[in-house]
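in:
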């Protein structure tokens, strides 16, 4: 269990439309429901691509709601800049930052199992 104030802090999750981000969205939604907190979905897009970013965020919200229920409070935040830096800054006051993974590749996967 976390600290008493942790339940009130939201979970920030990065969304980029990838399969690993979809898994991260589902996990973040379930975890937020378990903790009784909210989710903020962040998409870090390119300058001038605000409409595409908003569309991606709307789909991401649907993914979270399918995983955790429609009662979960989900906010959307389209941002621009260096993805890693922006996500760290966006989650400065969050309980968690959740992001997907790109995987290890075929060779490493075969060696590690």
């Amino acid at each position: 269990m976390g600290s008493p104030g942790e339940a009130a802090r939201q979970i920030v999750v990065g969304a980029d439309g990838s399969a690993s981000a979809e898994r991260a969205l589902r996990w973040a939604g379930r975890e937020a429901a378990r903790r009784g907190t909210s989710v903020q979905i962040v998409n870090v897009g390119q300058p001038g691509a605000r409409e595409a970013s908003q569309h991606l965020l709307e789909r991401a919200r649907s993914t979270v709601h399918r995983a955790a229920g429609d009662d979960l409070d989900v906010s959307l935040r389209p941002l621009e800049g260096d993805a890693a830096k922006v996500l760290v800054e966006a989650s400065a006051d969050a309980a968690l930052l959740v992001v997907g993974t790109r995987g290890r590749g075929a060779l490493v996967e075969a060696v590690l199992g």
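note: The two ends are 32 Å apart (CA to CA).
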